[in-house]
Amino acid sequence: MTVDPEVGEVAVAIRGLTKRFPGVLANENVDLTVRRGEIHALLGENGAGKSTLMSCLVGLYRPTEGHIELATGGEPLHRVEIHSPRDAIRLGIGMVYQHFKLVPNQTVAENVILGVEGVGFVPNMKKIEAEVAALGERFGLKVDPTAEIWQLSVGLLQRVEILKLLYRGAEILILDEPTAVLTPQESAELGVTLRHLADDGRAVIFISHKLDEVLAFSDRVTVLRGGRNVATIDTKDADKAGLAKLMVGREVLFDSDREDHDAGAVVLNCENVSASDSRGLPAVAGVSFEVHSGEILGVAGVAGNGQFELAECITGLRSLTGGRIYLHGDDVTGMSPRGFIRRGVSHVPADRLGMGLAGGLPLTDNFIMKRYKSAPISKGRFLRKRAISTLSDEYIKKFAVSTPSSSTPARNLSGGNQQKAILAREIDAGAKSGLTPLIVAAYPTRGLDVGAIEAVREALLAERLRGSAIILISEDLDELLVLSDRVMVLHGGENMGVVDADQATKERVGLMMAGEAVHQ
Amino acid sequence: MIRLRLERRLDPPGYLSWVVPVVSVVLALVASGLLLLAFGANPIETYAAMWDGAFGDIFGGEFYSVSETLVRATPLILTGLAVAVAFKMKFWNIGAEGQLVMGGIAASGVALFLPEAAPGIPQNLVVYGLLMGGAAILAGALWALIPALLKAYLNVSEIIVTLMLNYIAILWYSQLFTTSWKDPAGFGFPGSALFPEYTWLPRFFNTRVNLAIFIGLLAAVFVWVLLSKTRAGYEIRLLGDNPEAARFAGVSMFRNIILVMLVSGGLAGLAGMGEVAGISHKLQQGLSANNGFTAIIVAWVAKLQPWAIVLVSILLAAVFVGGDQIQMTMGLPASVAQVVQGIMLFFVLGGDIFSRYRIRVVRQHVEAPA
Prior knowledge:
The complex is a heterodimer.
Chain A: E1 3-4, E2 8-21, E3 24-35, E4 39-43, H1 50-57, E5 65-70, E6 78-80, H2 85-90, E7 93-96, H3 108-113, H4 125-139, H5 154-167, E8 172-176, H6 184-199, E9 203-208, H7 211-217, E10 220-225, E11 228-234, H8 240-248, E12 266-276, E13 282-292, E14 296-300, H9 307-313, E15 322-327, E16 330-331, H10 337-342, E17 345-348, H11 352-356, H12 363-367, E18 378-379, E19 382-383, H13 385-398, H14 415-432, E20 438-442, H15 450-465, E21 469-473, H16 477-483, E22 486-491, E23 494-500, H17 506-513
Parallel strand pairs in A: 4-9, 4-10, 7-8, 8-9, 14-21, 14-22, 17-20, 20-21
Antiparallel strand pairs in A: 1-2, 2-3, 2-5, 5-6, 10-11, 12-13, 12-15, 15-16, 18-19, 22-23
Chain B: E1 2-8, H1 16-38, H2 43-54, H3 64-88, H4 96-117, H5 125-154, H6 158-180, H7 211-229, H8 231-241, H9 243-248, H10 253-280, H11 291-301, H12 306-329, H13 334-351, H14 353-356, E2 357-363
Antiparallel strand pairs in B: 1-2
Helix pairs in contact in B: 1-2, 1-13, 2-12, 3-7, 3-10, 3-11, 3-12, 4-5, 4-6, 4-10, 4-11, 5-6, 5-10, 7-8, 7-10, 7-12, 11-12, 12-13
């Protein structure tokens, strides 16, 4: 029994865990111990085996070899078999998934008790609501227990997920890339909450590939690469470059090179564009801006301030409630998405599997989405199989999409490879339009590992040099300032001003994101 | 403690696609056998009778039984293809029955009234075959257009509308053959007058197998080409898999709902024409024989694959025809035959889960702390 007053008692120990899938070795002989009272970061690229490892811990998968030992519920460390998420919860292990699992038209309290045994056939909601509120108070997870899920922001949804685990008495909390959907401020708050949880004697495991967060939040870091544990180190002894090297297995450059060159003619011109969100509430309020050939216009803003809707407006997917949009000088207001596509507009959407790809269809079908109506992909009403496979091979090679074959369903690829597939398709579609392409990239690096982020950024910068006009919507201010020529800040759907990236500081853009208008 | 758990197969091996159905059928035969024993019937004899009813002495050069199976399969093939096209787009057309009936009515209308109304039209099989087929396709398609338009414009659930339209079509057709179109010279029996002989689809080898089965096979080729070789088929697949991605790609949901339902309704309408012009030669009881509903089972068992739909239709028809046979020769009640059919479907449909999941036996062992 390892009880060290300095570092706390071991809560969970994974011993020699190997998980093999048909043809894939996801985890190989991984050892990992997590102590009570610590925040343990699990760092690694996509496909490094982080999620598989944690899935074994919560009973979604069974390890091929090795075993798990737990010290929860007041018991000493002993070997356990976890067959299902239900087993895991019973043993005090809970996980917050990247995609929240909440019922939109039920209240927070109702979601919290969903699946909890012993709440009775007719639950005493008043009592439960009070309990949920008290838990929230205690850990800095304030949410109105009577609010319905659909009313809440992403940050609050995450709190509900954490409350669900705490209500079930989880002593080991696993969070799968929790900050991927949060604003910088919300991320900071999450960090405070995690610290509360650790101080309460719980063990927190947090999966990430964002080095800054790992350094800011965690006590110890375990780096996985190729399914193996390459290092477990104290965070205070770690630095960004060192972690990146462990993670990728080589040196990584953090500053992308944006060559100076002059922007060209106006490609997109928005005049007083207004639009509503899906619930019919105003989301974009009279935004005007221009994007030039050979320029990257960054769009900054706290999530939910109209960026998503603006992207849909300028790709023809959302109808305007006011204003006009001009492409290459032509008024395209009110045109169909196809009309925008024909005029060289490509779109890397925020939600890869939700909109960018048809997950159940093979990659080939996904590659031809923007080009299936014209030669050589189709001839008359018929598709040409040979041309499609040539195109697929070309995309796969050019963008180094790692996939078993071009007939693999898009859903089965990793996030990074899905994004590469989308980029390949969108960049090519723009180039084939015969006009200067406009690429609208919404959160193109979200949820990707370092290697894939590099690839995406390089692709965007290369397009810039080739003269494309690019709109880059991102939540990562560092990324925006490095890649963009100019940065536009949205707040409450309004344009707070456009600043030159070279002169902008994070602080200044941050103030604009909080609603302070700056006009140049 | 031992528990059974289902685990999703990440990479289902290819051989399962035939092993699972075969094992399912064998198990279904065993389960039905127990039931038959309970009824005092010899299962082996019963199955022999079923085989005899469905396929007869096919290897001895006797084709009567198998011809009846093919006759039974024909409307299933057409309606199975009809619903499969719509299901591919996740448009839940459960109105193939009504669309079939409308097709049958339209074809009957042409055969019964056009010769008198337009005597100038050449009265031969080619012309009338095309006219009746065209009318049937049109009628089925228009009947399917109602839910399509309601869905496209007003987002009304196609499930409810297609289902309810079945009953309207069936009741209308009942009214026609019992009242409006009843043969005055029919001695008071319900049913229309017999169609002129030149409108009858040609039959083969002295059996009831007729041209309609080739229409069905042709339709299978058509659907296969449509879904896997054309731009329209690509749009349908895209819409079925992810409507948002389709919208993103500039695919019109509106246009495709209408296209798909025209094709789907048209195919079901053709099934109705095949029944009246190939089998009954008049509008009478029995046109609506639940083919449009059975088609849903056919389409699912065949996983929406056109060739598999042809095969599954024939196999299912064999079960139906064989079921009729055991009522006659074994003297079993009709309900027993239906239960046997039900058990077969239950096993085949239920067995599908084993091609997607594997069963794991897990022992929960609680070990003492180390």
